[in-house]
Amino acid sequence: MTPIQLASFAIKSGAISLEKDMDLVLARLRRMPAEAVDQFLRQLTMELQPSAGAIQNVVVRRKMLKQLVGQIQGVFLSWRPEDWTLFLSTRLSPLLPSLGAEDTQLLLSYVSGCNNFQAFVASLGAAYSSMAPENRHGVAQSLVDFLRIQANTTGSACDGSMEATMSSQDWLWKNLGPFVFDADYGDFMKLKDDFSGFDVQENLTSTQLAHVFFTPGILEDIGLVSTLLTTLESRTMSSMISFVTEFVSVAQQQGISALTNVPVRDAMFAAIFHNVRPRLTRLSPQEYKDWFRHRLGLWLPSITAEALAGLPKNMPCGIFQIV
């Protein structure tokens, strides 16, 4: 069979869903040159499109990705941005949900310069929603590692020119795309000297947003804090809980045991308590202890009678004593 016929056979026979059958297809492809593999991928993608381009068998998809990328990697060195865009957006798109840290590192080892890198990120971002969380995290870390190498070798983590650096928003989107949600906030600060989390607050996760509050001066400015709280209040309860957990952790790391600005503390307590109050009505004694002695500790001096009135009236004595 030709590569095109082999791709059609894999789809129409159902071999694409069966590991043993697909092993035979891959064994035949292994003996073919890079050009033949490219033809196979092109035909495969075209025939998968009516079914939304999905390869449901994760084991099959993973094996295909590993072998086929390995067979054609020799051509990557001469690629320009448009080549990466074509490859990732069409040829490799059915396999991208299985892309992880190791695969991304391999591909990035052939990517040279920021234009190629940003084309790589833009194309890869299209597969974000179909990736497992661990794969997203692995890709994000690999992208950050590439930017770190760029910063060490060129003095800039793909941040425009010396005369005109990018805005924080543009820098995040062009260099990390949706994988920004799986990266560590501290890396943004290390990679871009003038990075402003405040300017991109709506594009950060609640965990990342917790770090923005610790930007020098913010916890002393009720106006800035109120702006951040407006963003935070639109999030889900689980996101607010993640924010509280991360905020407390960062405060401990920085040796902060109290929030001394009373208006800031009052505003934060009101926003947090309003969001998580439904959760507080159905906690176990141990969970109450965790919330009122640990998670809410920084804000408890701002608790009000109205807030306490919102707790269950029939809570057991043991829980009442904890509160």
Task: Give a description of the structure.
There is one protein chain. With 323 residues, this protein is mainly α. The protein has 3 domains: 1-77; 79-191; 196-323, no CATH class. Helices cover 61% and strands 0% of the residues. It is built from 17 helices and no strands. The longest helix has 22 residues, at 133-154. The mean pLDDT is 90.
The description of the largest β-sheet is:
none
Taken together, the total number of domains comes to 3
**Series of secondary-structure elements, N-terminal to C-terminal:** HHHHHHHHHHHHHHHHH
Structural class: mainly alpha
Low-confidence stretches: none
Put simply, the count of helices is 17
**Principal-axes shape call:** elongated
Looking at the chains present, what oligomeric state does this protein adopt? single chain
Computed CA radius of gyration, to the nearest angstrom: 25 Å
Number-wise, the strands total 0
| Rounded mean pLDDT score | 90
Content of β-strand: under 5%
Q: Can you give the helix content as a percent range?
A: 55-70%
How far is it from the N-terminal to the C-terminal residue, by CA?
73 Å
